[in-house]
User: Fold this.
Amino acid sequence: MDVGKKIADARNAAGLTQQEFADRLFISRELVSKWENGTRRPDLTTFEKIAEVLGIPTENLIRREDRMFEELEACIPNGREFTLESLTAAIEDFLRTLPSGHAQLFMRRYYLLNSNAEIANILNIKENLVRSRLSKTVKKLKNYLKEYKEPSNKTR
Assistant:
């Protein structure tokens, strides 16, 4: 089942019109319509808000693994090809460039698949700080991958 249909079904099950749903999310009804008909897709933070408004687990709309993969996939520059091995090596190299606290947030999000709320709880910091640091780190990763040159020797 596609994501738009899942959102529509969950919204209907909650007894909400598109307008009521949009009002609770502080967005336009038109955006809800676009999500439901598949012309737009919510970002991953918005999926969490949608699930919260609907009173369902986020995983009812999209699996956690899929969300994390989509976030990382969005970091790969258009036209740039990576094998799984070379992307893993690039991310490992990138993590070495980060302050340890930022690397820890990244690892918890993308390797351990923790949500922002879980990370905030584990590290005893505010969720907004987690979101902000991860957002900055993902932007740095995008730039890093644009410039990444694979090592000429394959001895790792």
Q: What stands out?
A: The chain has a mean pLDDT of 90. The chain has two domains: 3-62, 65-147. The longest helix spans residues 127-147.
